[in-house]
Design brief:
The structure is a homodimer of 231-residue chains. By secondary structure, chain A is of the alpha+beta class. Chain A has eight helices and four strands. In chain A, a hairpin with a 5-residue loop joins strand 3 and strand 4.
């Protein structure tokens, strides 16, 4: 199995966590989607992903046919159906719905509105100030909604004491928010979920700074040069 | 069961189709999210939906407790799990994944980037031309990806001869594209899916112009005054 990924991509980060939680081994294929490189624009990548995004999961099925799957939600639900242990969704329909509700607040409510393409356009037409104001509003509104939902639940994670699909979206979104300098003090429940998550090997192994395409610590600007946790 | 909906909202439209396909009766609660009215900003609506969007599904559970669910994907997966007939997803994990992949191309790849809030911001900071160019690019790119995926499948619908979750996203997105004056000639497979879908009562009943909050035909601007289909 191969994962086309970019270390900083929060959608890739979600899938890396799931693969680690399920204990699925995979080959990491870095795609540098940074504005300076834009490897996704290479001619051949259009065949891997017509929309030229990451992540893409690639594998050979039982009949040896190459399969590629895009869209983190589709990939994650697939992984959970094919490798049900540990489960990423509860059993009861309404409980499953509550997890998917949180997932979509991040997946369609925050991420697309603050990804690099959207922000680049805003910067071009509106300048840095408009871009920052927009990014802050989108992220803070989404995290506020998530914080309320999470507070209504019990447990170390979004719902209960085991990580579920919602946690795979919350942790990368907090990473993104921090990168953008968003003050997270208003979201103590989400921060507690992050602490519980990063106590697990699967979440730590999936962290951006631990990926093969992440620059070495000394090459990063000071705000990102946090020490790798010892584990 | 109550559905908070706006006739033109494509996310509401998806849920209306599912409710009709499953034969679930519901009360329609109109929320006028048009820029001129913005009923979602009313103080009380924040309790219905913290992010002040539509759709919201509301019901009383077996113990009489009021439940509210937001996010169209979460609502649709819930409806499909609670009322499995007719199914909105196939059985086999990879086939399910292919449907969810198409769903997310619309749900996170197109819709959030061309909803009224995003477009209003773009118009404010960049003017009408930037807004139109952005909208066109986002919609055309997404529909192109969907067209390729749909062409790889057989059947009258996105995949096979029965409507599935992907079709519930494609039909409202085509409605949106048309409203915005996008030329759909490059997407013959998607247009054929729309024809097959609108031959079914469930899709027709869910159409924007048939909702109680839709203005009467004569009150609409010419581009939207298409005749209601006789059925």
């Amino acid at each position: 199995m191969k994962l086309y990924s970019y270390f900083r991509s929060s959608s890739s980060y979600r899938v890396r966590i799931a693969l680690a939680l399920k204990g699925i081994r995979y080959e990491y294929v870095p795609v540098d989607i940074s504005p300076a490189v834009q490897a996704q624009r290479a001619v051949g990548y259009g065949e891997i992903h017509p929309l030229r995004q990451v992540p893409v999961l690639e594998w050979h099925d039982a009949s040896g046919r190459e399969q590629r799957l895009t869209q983190s939600v589709a990939i994650l639900e697939y992984l959970d159906e094919r490798w049900p242990t540990p489960p990423l969704l509860p059993h009861e329909p309404l409980e499953r719905a509550r997890i998917r509700e949180a997932v979509e607040i991040v997946n369609s409510g925050i991420q697309p509105l603050q990804n690099s393409k959207t922000l680049a356009l805003l910067r071009t037409v509106g300048g840095t100030e408009v871009e920052e104001c927009w990014r802050r509003e989108v992220i803070e509104q989404g995290l506020s909604a998530l914080e309320s939902l999470a507070r209504a639940n019990r447990g170390a994670f979004f719902s209960g004491d085991m990580p579920l699909l919602a946690d795979l979206f919350i942790v990368p979104q907090l990473y993104n928010a921090r990168r953008f300098g968003i003050d997270l003090a208003a979201f103590p429940r989400l921060l507690a979920i992050e602490v519980a998550a990063l106590a697990l090997d699967a979440f730590r192994l999936a962290q951006p700074e631990r990926q093969p395409d992440a620059p070495p610590v000394e090459a990063r600007p000071p705000s990102e040069a946090w020490p790798r946790s010892k584990s």
